């Protein structure tokens, strides 16, 4: 029997709050630190490991976290979710994104269909379509091959697929699976669409309109913007566009598209990278086999997330440590710092994934909670971030927990030895150095040069960013965020907080404004 209780009502949470604080600088120094790095590590899928040696936890804190996981029924709640319970209470929906990449539990029937079969069917339809485009069986009106794919979408219909595309672009080129260049139009700023359109040959481009709801202002505006450009180029837009949407959306049955592929209401936009939303652009860009490998990596990590043993479940432990940092230690932010240029836009995707999911002030029953929930998430790839905001991370007045991601190998393989080390070695040396610098600090009589240390971090270490590892990494963060939502007792799968601004913007455009809204409208010349 599952019970959904607020975090602060749980006995194990009260016990956790009383656990003695760990002196991170002390425990990470010398031989003790070396032992921690060896022991505080959990294997993940695709050759990754999650290392939490530099987090401010010890065996007592970990014991308390294990008890918290049990009392909060994290494993049972995940099981209920993947077995098709209505976990998205706000919208009264199932939450099935795991099913786009595997079947973790029971078959789930909804809307009269087996949902796993539905997602696989969409993947197969996309694969077939992509193969025909690559083979020149689906072409433009002149019978010429499409060379570029342009995704039009915003939020979850943009950030995840864009981050995944960028992560695999160089890998695919190196591994001869690069089929088509992809571009993305998201912002309603006309300069976004115009710049993309100026950079491509529209006659050889296929546009993927992605909108789960089929009603998003920015996306529909950009669709019209693109159609206008196609018309001006003398092209039939319906021969250049496909749609990815839910079967119930206004786009689903339109003749405006060459083909339509479907997700459904049980896949949240920000959790849709492994559905048709990511599937269409990634299969067109890299081929369906690459997309399938990406799904396999995610499915393998999902399996680990289902493990009841917290110390063998990287996502559950990561979530628990995050809640300890947020609610007991009182840290307001978390930075995600991938030491990989391929993961350039991964933090941007995680910003939506995490903050749109857990940025809530009421629990899943709509009652206010009296404790902090989701932290502010931000990040940049290393080493670039080091030369930007790391000053605050090292010496600022707030402690910001850090999530590093590092890889032993790069993607392209070109590297040069300069002053006895390769660039890849320099990259990896920096991430190792940062972890220890943050944790241990360095005392200096000059206070300006003093580093307190005690700044916690974890690192996920992998071999290389490739389709499988990228899938596993994505699933890690999706599942961590889900477990944190369970702990905070919030509904991580709705996003009512984005509605008010949309309603007011519509009023501005309809000139139905007064007060401050009217003055701002005038100032902005609307
Ligand atoms: O895919 P859609 O329905 O166009 O929505 C796009 C995005 O807009 C949001 O609803 C936020 O406004 C996100 O949750 C979603 O990912």
Automatic annotation (TrEMBL):
Claim: Cytoplasm is one of the keywords in the record: yes
Q: What GO molecular function annotation could you give as one example from this UniProt entry?
A: glucose-6-phosphate isomerase activity
Query: Which InterPro entries did the record assign?
Result: G6P_Isomerase (IPR001672), G6P_Isomerase_C (IPR023096), Phosphoglucose_isomerase_CS (IPR018189), SIS_dom_sf (IPR046348), SIS_PGI_1 (IPR035476), SIS_PGI_2 (IPR035482)
Q: What is its EC number?
A: 5.3.1.9
From the UniProt record, list the coiled-coil ranges.
none
One GO biological-process annotation of the entry reads: gluconeogenesis
List, alphabetically, the CDD domains matched: SIS_PGI_1, SIS_PGI_2
Q: Where in the cell is it found?
A: Cytoplasm
Chief localization: cytoplasm
* GO CC annotation terms, alphabetical: cytosol
Keywords recorded for this protein, A-Z: Cytoplasm, Gluconeogenesis, Glycolysis, Isomerase
The record lists the catalysed reaction(s) as: alpha-D-glucose 6-phosphate = beta-D-fructose 6-phosphate
Pathway field of the UniProt record reads: Carbohydrate biosynthesis; gluconeogenesis; Carbohydrate degradation; glycolysis; D-glyceraldehyde 3-phosphate and glycerone phosphate from D-glucose: step 2/4
Give the domain of life: Bacteria
Active site as annotated: 356, 387, 502
Q: What does this protein do?
A: Catalyzes the reversible isomerization of glucose-6-phosphate to fructose-6-phosphate.
Which family would the database say this protein is a member of? Belongs to the GPI family.
Q: Which PANTHER family match?
A: GLUCOSE-6-PHOSPHATE ISOMERASE (PTHR11469:SF1)
Name by which UniProt lists this protein: Glucose-6-phosphate isomerase
Name the species this protein comes from: Roseburia intestinalis L1-82
């Amino acid at each position: 029997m599952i019970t959904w209780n607020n975090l602060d009502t749980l006995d194990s949470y009260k016990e956790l709050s009383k656990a003695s604080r760990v002196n991170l600088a002390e425990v990470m120094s010398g031989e003790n630190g070396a032992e921690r790095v060896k022991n505080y590590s959990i294997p993940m899928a695709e050759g990754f490991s999650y290392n939490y040696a530099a987090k401010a936890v010890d065996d007592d804190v970990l014991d308390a976290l294990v008890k918290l996981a049990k009392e909060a029924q994290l494993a049972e709640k995940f099981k209920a979710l993947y077995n098709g319970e209505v976990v998205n209470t706000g919208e009264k929906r199932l939450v099935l994104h795991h099913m786009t990449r595997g079947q973790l539990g029971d078959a789930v029937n909804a809307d009269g269909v087996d949902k796993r079969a539905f997602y696989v069917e969409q993947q197969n339809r996309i694969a077939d379509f992509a193969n025909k485009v690559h083979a020149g069986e689906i072409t433009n009106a002149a019978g010429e091959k499409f060379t570029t794919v342009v995704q039009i979408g915003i939020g979850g219909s943009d950030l995840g697929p864009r981050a995944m595309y960028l992560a695999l672009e160089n890998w695919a080129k190196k591994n001869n699976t690069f089929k088509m260049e992809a571009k993305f139009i998201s912002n309603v700023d006309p300069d976004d669409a115009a710049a993309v359109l100026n950079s491509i040959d529209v006659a050889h481009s296929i546009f993927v309109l992605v909108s789960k709801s089929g009603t998003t202002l920015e996306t529909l505006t950009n669709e019209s913007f693109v159609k206008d450009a196609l018309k001006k180029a003398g092209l039939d837009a319906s021969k250049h566009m496909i749609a990815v949407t839910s079967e119930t959306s206004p786009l689903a049955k339109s003749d405006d598209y060459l083909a339509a592929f479907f997700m459904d209401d049980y896949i949240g936009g920000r959790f849709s990278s492994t559905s048709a939303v990511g599937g269409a652009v990634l299969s067109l860009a890299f081929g369906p086999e690459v997309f399938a490998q990406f799904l396999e990596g995610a499915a393998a990590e999902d399996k680990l997330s289902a493990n009841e043993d917290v110390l063998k479940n990287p996502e559950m432990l990561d979530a628990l440590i995050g809640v300890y940092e947020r609610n007991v230690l009182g840290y307001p932010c978390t930075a995600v710092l991938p030491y990989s240029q391929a993961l350039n836009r991964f933090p941007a995707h995680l910003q939506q994934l995490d903050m749109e999911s857990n940025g809530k002030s009421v629990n899943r029953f709509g009652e206010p909670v009296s404790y902090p929930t989701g932290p502010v998430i931000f990040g940049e790839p290393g080493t670039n971030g080091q030369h930007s905001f790391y000053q605050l991370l090292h010496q600022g007045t707030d402690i910001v927990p850090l999530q590093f991601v590092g890889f032993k190998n790069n993607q392209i393989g070109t590297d040069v030895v300069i002053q006895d080390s390769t660039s890849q070695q320099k990259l990896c040396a920096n991430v190792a150095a940062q972890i220890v610098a943050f944790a241990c600090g360095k005392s200096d009589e000059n206070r300006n040069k003093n580093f307190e240390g005690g700044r916690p971090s974890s690192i996920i270490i992998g071999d290389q960013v490739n389709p499988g590892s990228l899938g596993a990494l994505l699933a890690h963060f999706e599942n961590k965020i889900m477990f944190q939502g369970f702990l905070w007792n919030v509904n991580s799968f709705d996003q009512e907080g984005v509605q008010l601004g949309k309603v007011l913007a519509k009023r501005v455009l309809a000139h139905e404004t007064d007060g401050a809204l009217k003055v701002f409208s005038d100032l902005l010349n609307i």
